[in-house]
């Protein structure tokens, strides 16, 4: 009986150890899952913010290009804004600065340019004020022209940041002016993105202000990437720490602080903090059955051994030794197989990446790019949609390579790849064909003419000066564009884009040409 009790006690200890080990494994799985969801959500939110910023910047350039901006011009420029394209966008306003003594003259000027009924009244004693001149509603709630923006300190601060900082600026969270006139249920945490409107000659003309409802802006992105298994909170700690949005998955959040993740992202010269909490749905995805079966098996084996020890006391030592040896061998075998499988998966991932990506820039290589163009021909033909292939060749790269050496040239190519990734849409395919040649596949064009905007952005972005480890450098980009046409295969489109690029080079470089 004493030996049987010892066996049962040992079996209980083994069961507890196995249960603890499996619980730790489940904890590691939950931790890795939280890390993955954190990376996915933060990357998605950053990409969405960049997309809104790029849209606002494009419209700012379009407004700045008008020598005598009218209400009709503003309506044409903002015609593409809608809730499907920019979820959460409340509206877009053109704001100008007016000195107090010029209120009447400026009011009459904009009335003559289509702002019917515009009335400018300064809300405070300042010498100058910022007023809404034109506006376009996206959510159906109108914005009243003539509002004095100085009445909203956070918005006035963002206007100053955008004007003197040059880059896109964002406000801290607040209730939009037009929502304050609505029912209290419409008073949700919102923010505004502000872009400076400045001509190529440097003359400041005003601002474009896009009001955005925080929950609507982030809900679709977070829901798509959190998959209902994590709760995501987005805060603005650089302001009042007001919550921008909270998206809750199924079940209550897990109280274990070790599974809570935080990530900071930059939004219009401010910092948002993303906090992700696990839910019961995430934890229920862990295989608790394995732990139950393992513990039950250990207890069952212990009971059987106890009975055998009681009946066959003389054979107890041999039986215990055999069981321990079999358990150790099983653990070693499991560990060995897991190690081999992990190495195989890592090697397979490495080989797949090397086969389809450029080793220097990490971009897609020629082979994978050709495959994606071929696939785009099939999908876009079925949907009757347009896509474009953009060929990019760096002007002056050889001189940089000769002056700074191959290391400097490689550094430049990596920075060019990074700039292309930053200035294009998240869904665009960017490839390096070798040397100083790059290519871009931009799909699902709402209007084939949209590719000209992307090409202009590429020429401007690539043409900015570079600060390399080996010293400063500069190159420009000659860009050729080819659109898909019936009867063309991938090689035809690539050839047309290549020829258009060479035409751009012959025409003086630092420009783009669309294949005829």
TrEMBL record:
Per its UniProt entry, which superkingdom is the organism in? Bacteria
The protein's location, in the record's own words, is: Membrane
Pfam families, per database record: CHASE (PF03924), GGDEF (PF00990)
Q: Which UniProt keywords apply?
A: Membrane, Transmembrane, Transmembrane helix
Q: Which GO terms describe its biological process?
A: signal transduction
Positions of the GGDEF domain: 385-516
GO CC annotation terms, alphabetical: membrane
Q: Would I find Zinc-finger among this entry's keywords? A: no
- Membrane spanning residue stretches: 293-315
GO molecular function terms noted in the UniProt entry: catalytic activity
| UniProt-listed PROSITE patterns | GGDEF (PS50887)
User: What SMART domains does the annotation carry?
Assistant: CHASE, GGDEF
Record bears the keyword Membrane: yes
What's the protein name? GGDEF domain-containing protein
Lineage of origin: Bacteria, Bacillati, Actinomycetota, Actinomycetes, Micromonosporales
């Amino acid at each position: 009986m004493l030996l049987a009790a010892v066996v049962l006690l040992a079996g209980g200890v083994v069961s507890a150890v196995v249960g603890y080990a499996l619980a730790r494994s489940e904890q590691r799985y939950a931790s890795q899952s939280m890390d993955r969801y954190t990376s996915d959500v933060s990357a998605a939110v950053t990409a969405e913010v960049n997309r809104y910023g790029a849209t606002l910047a494009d419209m700012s350039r379009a407004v700045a290009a008008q020598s005598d901006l009218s209400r009709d011009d503003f309506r044409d420029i903002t015609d593409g804004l809608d809730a499907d394209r920019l979820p959460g966008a409340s509206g877009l306003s053109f704001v100008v600065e007016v000195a107090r003594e010029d209120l009447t003259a400026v009011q009459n000027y904009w009335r003559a340019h289509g702002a019917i009924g515009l009335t400018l009244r300064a809300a405070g004693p300042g010498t100058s004020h910022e007023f809404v001149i034109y506006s376009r509603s996206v959510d159906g709630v109108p914005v009243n022209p003539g509002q004095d923006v100085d009445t909203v300190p956070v918005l006035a601060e963002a206007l100053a940041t955008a004007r003197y900082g040059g880059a896109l600026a964002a406000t801290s969270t607040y209730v939009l002016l037009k929502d304050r006139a609505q029912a209290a249920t419409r008073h949700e945490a919102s923010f505004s993105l502000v872009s400076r409107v400045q001509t190529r000659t440097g003359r400041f003309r005003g601002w474009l202000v896009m009001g955005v409802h925080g929950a609507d802006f982030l809900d679709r992105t977070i829901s798509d990437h959190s998959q209902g298994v994590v709760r995501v909170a987005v805060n603005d700690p650089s302001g009042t720490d007001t919550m921008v949005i909270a998206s809750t998955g199924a079940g209550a959040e897990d109280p274990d602080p070790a599974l809570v993740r935080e990530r900071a992202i930059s939004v219009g010269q401010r910092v948002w903090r993303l906090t992700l909490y696990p839910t019961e749905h995430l934890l229920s995805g862990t295989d608790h059955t394995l732990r139950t079966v393992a513990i039950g098996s250990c207890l069952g084996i212990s009971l059987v051994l106890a009975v055998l020890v009681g009946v066959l006391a003389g054979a107890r030592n041999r039986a215990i030794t055999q069981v321990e040896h079999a358990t150790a061998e099983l653990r070693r075998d499991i560990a060995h197989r897991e190690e081999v499988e992990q190495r195989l998966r890592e090697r397979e991932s490495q080989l797949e990446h090397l086969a389809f990506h450029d080793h220097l820039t990490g971009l897609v290589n020629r082979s994978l790019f050709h495959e994606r163009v071929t696939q785009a021909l099939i999908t876009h033909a079925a949907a009757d949609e347009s896509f474009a292939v953009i060929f990019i060749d760096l002007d002056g790269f050889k001189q940089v390579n000769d002056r700074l050496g191959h290391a400097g040239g490689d550094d430049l190519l990596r920075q060019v790849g990074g700039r292309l990734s930053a200035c294009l849409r998240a869904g665009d395919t960017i490839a390096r064909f070798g040397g100083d040649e790059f290519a871009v596949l931009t799909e699902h064009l709402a209007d084939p003419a949209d590719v000209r905007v992307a090409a202009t952005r590429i020429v401007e972005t690539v043409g900015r000066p570079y600060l390399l480890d080996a010293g400063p450098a500069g190159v420009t980009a000659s860009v050729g564009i080819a659109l898909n046409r019936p009867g063309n295969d991938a090689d035809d489109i690539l050839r047309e884009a290549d020829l258009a690029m060479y035409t751009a080079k012959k025409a003086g470089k630092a420009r783009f040409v669309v294949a005829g």
